[in-house]
Design goal:
alpha/beta, Rossmann fold, Heat Shock Protein 90, 5-stranded parallel beta sheet, elongated
Length: about 350
Amino acid sequence: MAKILVIDDSSVIKIKITSILEMEGHEVLSAEEGKTGIQLAKSNLPDLILCDIMMPEMDGYQVFQELKKNKETSTIPFLFLSAKADKSDLRIGMNLGADDYLTKPFEIDDLLKAVDTQIKKKQTQDFLSRKKLEELRANLSLTLPHDLITPLTGILETTSQLKANIKKMPENSIQNMLEHIESSGNTLQRHIENFVLYTRLEIIAQNPKEIEKLQKAECSNPYEIIQKYIVERASNFDYTGSIQVNVPNVTIKIGELYFIKLISEIFQNFICQFKNLNGTIINATQKPEIIHITIEPQNPKATLLNENVLNETGLGIDIIKKIAQLHGGEFIVDKIEFLKMTVVLPCIIY
């Protein structure tokens, strides 16, 4: 059964609730004031907290807000107990983010139903979190070996050849091999950074408040970002073709750093699909409150590496999808006429 913390300055109410819940098989912890309740919550991490609103020194609202500041206690379901029938008092608690409330005096059935609802809700959330974590582990176990071993193998093999033959190799061959090592090292670094980022995104995806915070960020200069991080640094992607940018400087609802990562990963994955891509167009189409940013070849007949199999897997693609999804958008791959990659994001039109 569940571990439940009861915080109430009334010993009568506290004993009554404790007795009822223990008869149902729950483990009950209790505190008669807010500070002790906070300490018990942090040290025991209960499955549910029942807390009186009107208490001396620290009221229920303050207890709730203090626990929300702590990462480990911020997701514990919180149920307010109030002797007040005034709806405005209860509304304050719900607006703060409490999960439910009970007005004292309450019926035993009402208490048990409220407790049962919150416990089942937490069990469902815990189950979904575990499932997401298992999916993350499965995805990474399939993706990471190839993404990390390939550049690492290139580094080790090239280093071995260089070590064995450096005395008899011409200078230009040595230079080429060093450049290959550097390129493989950069690829390896990118994959490791992507692994860390993807893990962080999965953690954010489990926390509605973190998602809300993410979606409040804005980027007002998408054109300049694309010019700076894609056009001016095209050589970083081993791309020598032209890039035409038709993207207005509208305000997109995504943080600048996430937009840089998003557009860089899309461009990287797009150019990797072609044999010889001489020109790329980055277009934008605005609709009410959303913007479509599309990358497509300048020449619709540009040759794909494999006409039958489009590579839509890998950590980079997973990151693109996850960033778009967390910001209320989506990532679309279209190959009806020719290959196009589009990210759809919310935007603000003034």
